[in-house]
Amino acid sequence: MYRFAKSAVNISSQAARQVRHGSSAPQDFHHKYGTGVMVGGAVFCTAVWSYVLTQTGITWNLSPIGKVMPKQWREAEE
């Protein structure tokens, strides 16, 4: 138990040190690349869904109205 507590304290002190000094990544990353990453993701998502909807041949079965005909009831046997 002592080793676990000692390692937990060590990890928390390392985390506090990282928060205090900050990470090595530049702070203006989102200002420089945020819009480009967002637009790129939107274009990728749109392209993938366009391909799926038009080229894969999936039958989507949007509405069964007019496509499904009910069976006739059997007449009661006498």
From TrEMBL:
Record localization: Mitochondrion inner membrane
GO annotations of cellular component type: mitochondrial inner membrane
Pfam families: COX7B
Gene3D superfamilies for the chain: Cytochrome C Oxidase, chain K (4.10.51.10)
Organism superkingdom: Eukaryota
Membrane topology note: Single-pass membrane protein
Main location group: mitochondrion
Entry keywords, A to Z: Membrane, Mitochondrion, Mitochondrion inner membrane, Transit peptide, Transmembrane, Transmembrane helix
Name assigned to this protein: Cytochrome c oxidase subunit 7B, mitochondrial
Entry keyword Kinase: no
Family: Belongs to the cytochrome c oxidase VIIb family.
Family matches, as PANTHER family: CYTOCHROME C OXIDASE SUBUNIT 7B, MITOCHONDRIAL (PTHR16716)
Pathway annotation from the record: Energy metabolism; oxidative phosphorylation
Organism in which the protein naturally occurs: Takifugu bimaculatus
Record GO biological process: mitochondrial electron transport, cytochrome c to oxygen
InterPro entries in the record: Cyt_c_oxidase_suVIIB (IPR008433), Cyt_c_oxidase_suVIIB_dom_sf (IPR023272)
